[in-house]
Structure formats: structure tokens, C-alpha cells
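Practice problem: predict the structure.
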Amino acid sequence: MPVIPDTMWTSLEFTAKIQNCSCSRLAIKGGLNSTLFNKSKRCTKFGNHWLSFGSILNALDGSNMNLLEFAVIYVLLDEYPKFDDTQQMREIIADINLHMQQYLKQIKQQQIMAQISDARE
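Answer:
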């Protein structure tokens, strides 16, 4: 799946919507300039302006969201551009985070078991 600037911007807008704030507020929460995500800065005479990875990470960090959550938003909006249910998106993200935590716990348990096994040998 190619990364598309328009979907990145839409994902950022949806992230702000989930946080019950504007894109400007999202930027401020991330310690960024409040105008960084303005619609007027999204397109230049050379084409669409890309969001920098650092700006996305700062905005997410300021909103207590992680990159996985943003990726989920991006993929859903890429597949379903008309998706607009913030509550359902919150539930999807919570479910994915729960599964990720369970998966990480399993990996940690496997690592511990491997260390115990290695120590016995």
C-alpha cells in the first residue's frame, strides 16, 4: 500500500477528532507551532506537502497516542475513506492495543522461559 499525503493529512485530522481537539491544538500538545498542520500549508505550488515523521511523532506523543494507533487510523481511512465514526475508531484502537499488550506479554514470557532453559543447560 503506497503512502498518500492526502490520507496522511486525513489521518491527522481524525487523530485530532479522536482527541476532541483541532489539528492546531494537536500541534500545540506536541510542542509544535500551532500553524504547522493548517490546511493552507498542506499544498504548495509543487504539490502536496508531506507531514514529517518527527511532527507526527511529536503530535502523537503530546496526545498520548502511539504510532501503531496512527497506523490503524491511516489504514482504515485508506481502505474506507468515508469512515467517520470516532467512537468505533476508539474501540478498534483499544482492541488492537489490548491484543498488542497480550502479544508482548507472550513474547516476554517466551524470553523468560528461554533464559531459564539456557540457565539449566
